[in-house]
Design a protein that fits this description.
The complex is a heterodimer of chains A (267) and B (394).
Chain A lengths: L1 H9 L7 H5 L15 E12 L2 E13 L4 E6 L5 H8 L7 E6 L2 E2 L5 H11 E4 L11 H12 L3 H14 L15 H14 L4 E5 L7 H16 L3 E6 L2 H4 L4 E6 L2 E7 H7 L1
Parallel strand pairs in A: 3-8, 3-9, 6-7, 7-8
Antiparallel strand pairs in A: 1-2, 1-4, 4-5, 9-10
Helix pairs in contact in A: 5-6, 5-7, 6-7, 7-8
Chain B lengths: L1 H13 L1 H39 L3 E6 L9 H10 L4 E10 L3 E3 L2 E3 L3 E5 L3 H4 L4 E4 L4 H5 L4 E4 L1 H8 L2 H4 L3 E4 L2 E9 L17 E5 H8 L6 E6 L5 H16 L5 E5 H44 L1 H9 L4 H37 L8 H28 L2 H6 L2
Parallel strand pairs in B: 5-10, 7-9
Antiparallel strand pairs in B: 1-11, 1-12, 2-5, 2-11, 3-4, 3-8, 6-9, 7-10, 8-9
Helix pairs in contact in B: 1-12, 2-10, 2-12, 2-13, 10-11, 10-12, 10-13, 12-13
Classes of the chains: A alpha/beta (267), B alpha+beta (394).
The complex binds adenosine-5'-triphosphate and magnesium ion.
Magnesium ion binds next to helix 3 of chain A.
């Protein structure tokens, strides 16, 4: 029901938002030749709530290059998750364009989006989102399964990924036999398994205590040092400080975008 | 495809109890169809066999002889010889009610029938010893008789010992000239009033013994069962020309009885198969229910799979295959159970029941079809879920 409403809404041009006013603007490609990994152009996401329209994202433009470590912060309801869903190709914007590695994702079909998620993006969720009936190896193998790797390739890649998070010796365990921090490490291993261009973490430490939060953040930093592009979404400023760049969202609009040092001054 | 298959198997295995309960309906449905059809089929072949034993080539003619119009045995024989091409044998049947005695022993259960010299051929019986009733016996109303195995053993101990001895029928003395070989199989018991408890005498003598002087029943053996309709027509023309009233005679062909028996049994097996089919349908609704529950339960799983790049068609495939595998596993177990029980039940109620290939094939394909059909709906529901909504659910 809700899904249908979204699809319908995508095609409605809104009249009273900044989105509509700006959507006619001509869009120029980057001129420096070094295309960013992510380019959001005037992204709008409008939800219909009865007769009212909620502008969850209201004209967001953003470029993120390879190797960056970006934190997206904002209060509850500011539109972070909505933006993450769009960046993560789980949803398409009502208006605006989204280029991921030069490809226009904003007008893709369900199946094309599924492929983008599979090949380009590694998700890390607050609730880990592991399959509880499968063991760790099978969990980590999942994205590889949908990518069409053979059984032996799947096993090899998944084991390597589990080794990276230090849980290879527990591969036959079920997620329920692990602590929260370990489960989050498994989900990181799963995110890494397919070697994606972008790692997208929505409140990755939201369900963890401060000690294990620290471990997870340090691990994400290490991954970034190794060259992975990481976007972390959080409502917690102290976690945002761990990133290199901070983007702050308020009422669906960006109200800060800069280095973490500048952000420290800003708040 | 292969992945979906192993995923389905894993999902079934990790929910053993739920899967088994789902299958139970199908197991019972399939087994029921196989058992019911097997029993009906066994009964059918048994009845057919006993009918063929009686002779499918026989036509029985019953007459209601009234004073003004009647058919004599001479007239009947005339008809018979005129149309001999159609027939193998013919015999009047005169049933005499009474008691037979030998010495101090007597039997009242014994069937006493007056027959012609062709009766043995007609009934496809064989002699054990001596001779059968001959034409000369008929002509001279000889007081001779041919007895069944039961009478021979009961009165004289053996078929040989009976020859030449006499027995009295309602007080008249008859010489035993022959015995008929045992009709029941060796394993069965020879019973009083059974198919070995009979005495044949010349029909001419029987008419006298019965004291009403008329013959009301004739049996014809056709040379070709295919000609049943023609022969019935001939008999009808002949009898109508004398009686001028169709109510005074009846012509019954055994093969027709067999036909109506067959169609009756076919109807029964269809009806019982239908009952089994309904139980299969109910089982299908059960499969759908469980699949729907499983989709709701696993919404989050679907969301996770979707976020990791599973396409809708892939998720759909997983659920449809899960339903199909569940129901075909149930179907296989149902076949095993049904085949096993058919024999056991058949033995218990004392008839040969054999599971038919048709029932197995139909019930199995129906159960798989039901699995696919009723698995499809929940599967398409699963596939249509929005990944964001699916991830948010718990
Ligand atoms: N499916 C939806 N239907 C209608 N409105 C929605 C839907 N999803 C989000 N919204 C609205 O859009 C706005 C932004 O929501 P979003 O979930 O992006 O916020 P958030 O920044 O992630 O908040 P939190 O920190 O609490 O997770 C909110 O006002 C929310 O009510
Ligand atoms: Mg959120």
């Amino acid at each position: 029901m809700a899904a249908k409403a979204f699809r319908f809404l995508r095609r409605i041009p809104s009249k009273d938002s900044s989105c509509a006013a700006e959507s006619g603007r001509s869009q120029k490609m980057d001129t420096d030749g070094n295309a960013p990994l992510i380019e959001l152009r005037n992204i709008c996401k409008i939800y219909q709530m009865g007769t009212e329209q909620v502008h969850a994202n209201d004209g967001i433009s953003l470029k993120i290059s390879r190797g960056e470590f970006v934190a997206i912060v904002g209060k509850s309801g500011s539109g972070k998750s909505t933006l993450m869903n769009i960046i993560g190709a789980l949803d398409v914007p009502t208006e605006g364009e989204y280029y991921l590695d030069g490809e226009d994702v904003s007008h893709m079909s369900e199946d094309q989006l599924a492929e983008i998620r599979n090949k380009m993006i590694g998700f890390i969720f607050q609730q880990y989102n592991l399959l509880l009936r499968d063991n760790l190896l099978e969990n980590v193998e999942l994205p590889l399964l949908y990518a069409g790797y053979s059984k032996s390739e799947r096993k090899e890649k998944a084991m390597r990924s589990l080794e990276r998070v230090g849980l290879a010796d527990k591969w036959f365990n079920k997620p329920s036999q692990l602590s929260g921090g370990q489960q989050q490490r498994v989900s990181i291993a799963r995110a890494l398994a397919g070697n994606p261009s972008l790692i997208l973490a929505d409140e990755p430490t939201g369900a963890l205590d401060s000690k294990t939060s620290r471990e997870v953040l340090d691990f994400l930093k290490e991954l970034n040092r190794e060259g992975n592009t990481i976007i972390i979404i959080t409502h917690d400023n102290s976690i945002a400080m761990e990133a290199k760049r901070v983007v702050r969202i308020k009422d669906g609009k960006i109200n800060f975008d800069g280095d973490v040092e500048k952000y420290a001054e800003f708040v | 495809m292969l992945n979906s298959f192993s995923l389905a198997l894993k999902s079934i295995w990790s929910n053993k109890m739920r899967s088994f309960l789902t299958m139970l309906g199908i197991i019972i449905g399939v087994a029921a169809v196989i058992i019911l059809v097997g029993l009906v089929n066994g009964q059918m072949s048994y009845m057919k066999e006993s009918f063929s034993d009686m002779g499918t080539n026989l036509i029985s003619v019953n007459l209601t002889n009234v004073n003004s119009r009647s058919v004599s045995d001479e007239e009947m024989y005339e008809f018979y010889t005129e149309n001999i091409d159609y027939f193998d044998a013919m015999s009047p049947n005169v049933t005499v009610s009474g008691t037979i005695k030998s010495g101090n022993e007597s039997l009242s259960s014994t069937t006493i029938t007056g027959v012609s010299e062709e009766y043995l051929t007609l009934k496809s019986m064989e002699l054990e010893s001596g001779r059968f009733i001959q034409y000369s016996d008929l002509a001279s109303r000889q007081k001779v008789c041919v007895i069944g195995y039961y009478v021979a053993t009961e009165f004289y101990g053996s078929a040989e010992a009976a020859l030449g001895d006499t027995l009295s029928i309602n007080g008249d003395r008859y010489t035993i000239v022959g015995t008929v070989e045992r009709q029941t199989s060796d394993s069965d018991e020879v019973e009083e009033g059974g198919s070995d408890d009979f005495v044949f005498i010349p029909y001419t003598a029987a008419v006298e013994l019965a004291r009403n002087g008329t013959i009301n029943n004739y049996t014809f053996a056709m040379s070709d069962v295919e000609q049943t309709e023609t022969v019935k027509g001939l008999l009808n023309t002949f009898l109508y020309s004398i009686f001028k009233n169709e109510d005074l005679y009846s012509i019954t062909a055994m093969s027709e009885l067999l036909d109506s028996l067959n169609s009756m049994i076919a109807m029964m097996s269809m009806m019982l198969g239908g009952i089994g089919g309904i139980s299969l349908l109910v089982a299908g609704v059960g499969v759908m229910n469980i699949m729907l529950v499983s989709v709701t339960e696993r919404t989050r799983e679907i969301g996770i799979r979707n976020s990791l790049g599973a396409k809708r068609s892939t998720i759909m495939q997983q659920f449809v295959i899960e339903a199909a595998v569940t129901s075909s596993l149930g179907g296989l177990m149902g076949i095993a159970l049904g085949c096993g029980l058919t024999g056991v039940i058949g033995k218990v109620i004392g008839m040969t029941a054999v599971p038919t290939v048709g029932a197995i094939a139909v019930s199995f394909s129906v159960s798989v079809g039901i699995g696919l059909l009723f698995g499809y709906m929940p599967a398409s529901r699963a596939a249509k879920l929005n990944p964001i909504d699916a991830l948010r659910s718990d």
